Amino acid sequence: MPLSFPINPRAPLRALGFLLFYVFNLPLIQAAETQSKVVPLSETAHYVGGNHCAGCHATEAAQWQGSHHDKAMQEASPQTVLGNFNDVTFSYAGITSTFFKQGDTFKVRTDGPDGKLKDYSIAYTFGFTPLQQYLIPLENGRLQALSIAWDARPAKEGGQRWFHLYPDESIQAGDELHWTGPNQNWNFMCADCHSTHLEKNYDREKDAYATRWSDIDVSCEACHGPGSRHVAWANTKAPKSADNGLSVGLNERKGVTWRVNPQTGNATRRPQKTTDTEIETCAFCHARRTTAFPDALPGQPLLDNLQVALLTEPLYHADGQIKDEVFEYGSFLQSKMYHAGVTCSDCHQPHSLKLRAEGNGLCAQCHLPDKYENKTHHLHTQGSEGSQCVNCHMPAKNYMVVDPRRDHSLRIPRPDLSLKLDTPNACNQCHADKTAAWAADILQTQFGAPKPHYGEALYAGRNGLGNAIARLAELTVDPTKPAIARATAASLLAPYLSRETAPILQMSANDPQPLIGYGLATALDQLPACAAHAVCLSFAF
User: Fold this and answer.
1) Rg (CA), the chain
2) Cα–Cα separations (whole angstroms), residue 219 to 60, 197, 329
3) CA–CA separation, 341 and 270 (whole Å)
4) Are 138 and 123 in contact (CB under 8 A)?
5) Cα gap 320→409, rounded to integer Å
6) Helix (H/G/I), strand (E/B), else coil: 445
7) pLDDT tens across 256-307, in order?
8) 12 pLDDT exceeds 90?
């Protein structure tokens, strides 16, 4: 049944008219707020480069060296290039490309923007494992990512070869996915997450870039913010202050303890986490998002500058599992770990990026092995692949052909939802010869009937089912559900805008979770301007 509220039906409709005005002017309002936050900081702190940090922070610098952040982007040289450039060839879509060297310069003869073969120089490497891409300079300051990449895995794992990132397609010159096209443009698509303090410097009139950075890779200030005040504090040997001149402290784990309850086998954080600075700092690059306002500084609220992808098609399955390449943030927001106060650095070393423990030892930091590391829980032979926590709770999917990424929603396998929503599940990912019904029966016998899941509401909204309005409305206002799922539900209410759903949207505007307001803005942004104007007028009178 539709939800009902004991309020005058015309009151929320009038309020929504003002709400629509606010939402459609939200970018201007946010811009003003962002200006007030950014300007004072930029006046007092500037980027100095990571080389200033190693003198005092030698341990952290040593951990960082050789990490994915350190090697996110490098100048092409015999020391950084991993691919075989010894006059080897690779054929794709009727084009045979040749990789060769001229002295210390790495070159490729391949099809250019006109489809004709031409020699190009490799300027930079991009990443290093499990694959390495190469950046080629074109006119007007553009750097383009070659779609033929080097598989850096060991040969015994199928690596040490050239491969194309779109092996099942035939990408030709002129296609936006061709290496010379806009979707492979480094300046626009990739740059601000592979370098520190990146300024794209796009000139619209000239259709040209003059992109620059303070560090070519992901260095200290990419996370800690501009460091000039901190360097000045250190050089003057001033007494310790609240922030020691740091732009971003990233100290949310300081003084935190996790106590395991022997009854539940789970840990509780003390004190409880009240801020998301660390997670949102990581999310700037580890989220599927677009930039609403450029020149973001570390430590600023994420939604002040970025538009984060909700659990929408074709990015996520209806239950929120990863589908397209969405990175980790949108998944982690759905997890019980996030809501318990877990941060990225509880599992990952912040400088080396390595896991804090191997295998099930990582989960055993907070989950009692006596309760979880046994066949009663994981239903598999001890020591087998099926007994590994991540294989059931963080199933992986390959992106860029050879790069497995684990789903960070840390969810319970739900083969029952596969039957209802046509979603994947970890059980059948391994037991591909069995049915979802087979897996669902085993789990129900062992653990009892499954609980309702927010994916059912999102599925109803996506597919216009008869119960969509009621289910989306209920999810939108349910504070016990993940904010990103509720925000997605609010965004899916757009086609169902009516007197029935207007109060839900009005309530969303006052929700303390910023993502809910973002979901509301997403919903109203889907309305045609004329419809929105008509709605405002009808609500006002």
Assistant:
1) 25
2) 11, 9, 21
3) 9
4) no
5) 8
6) helix
7) 999 999 999 999 999 999 999 999 999 999 999 999 888 888 989 999 999 9
8) no
Residue 472 CB neighbours (<10 A): 23
Percent of the chain topping pLDDT 90: 79
Ranges of H-type helices in 379-499? 389-393, 415-421, 426-430, 436-447, 454-463, 468-476, 483-492
Q: Residue 396: which of 475, 325, 499, 309 has the closest Cα?
A: 325
Q: What is the largest CA-CA distance in the chain?
A: 79
Cross-strand partners of 111: 117
DSSP strand E in 245-343: where?
A: 257-260, 267-270, 289-291, 306-308
Q: Give the DSSP H/E element, type plus range, for residue 101.
A: strand 95-102
Which tokens hold the place of 81?
A: 């290039």
Cβ-based neighbour number of residue 332 at 10 Å:
24
CA distances in angstroms from 31 to 21, 417, 512, listed in the order given: 16, 41, 20
Q: What is the pLDDT of residue 529?
A: 64
C-alpha pair distances (Å), 84 with each of 90, 124, 301, 444: 11, 15, 43, 52
Tokens of 110: 């391949």
Confidence label for 43 from pLDDT (cuts 50, 70 and 90): low
In whole angstroms, what is the distance from residue 532 CA to residue 20 CA? Answer: 7
The owner of tokens 């939604």 is 303
Neighbouring CB atoms inside 10 A of 420's CB total: 16
> For residues 483 and 385, what is the distance between their CA atoms, to the nearest angstrom?
33
CA distance 56 to 428: 50
- DSSP 8-state symbol, 286: S
- Judged by DSSP in three states, 385 sits in helix
Share of the chain above pLDDT 70, in %: 90
For the record, the structure tokens of 71 come out as 């090697």
Residue 215 makes CB contacts below 8 A (sequence gap 6+) with 49, 50, 195, 196, 197, 221, 222
The C-alpha atoms of residue 379 and residue 395 are separated, in whole angstroms, by: 16
Going by C-beta distance under 8 Å and a sequence separation of 6 or more, which residues neighbour residue 498? none
Give the C-alpha separation, 145 to 464, whole Å.
40
State residue 328's pLDDT score: 98
Domains in the chain: boundaries: 73-209, 257-412
Contact, 209 vs 225, CB < 8 A? no
Instruction: For residue 30, give both structure tokens.
Output: 């946010």
Torsion of CA 63, 67, 73, 77, to 10 degrees: 90
- Two tokens at 204? 């619209």
Looking at per-residue pLDDT, the higher value among 317 and 3 belongs to 317
Q: What's the start-to-end Cα distance of the chain, in Å?
A: 29
Per the CB < 8 A criterion, the answer to whether 516 and 508 are in contact is yes
Cβ contact 326:309 at 8 Å: yes
Closest CA to 144 of 98, 114, 110, 178: 178
Other Cβ atoms less than 10 A from the Cβ of 117: the count is: 12
Query: 3-state SS of the chain: helix, strand, coil percent to 5?
Result: 40, 15, 45
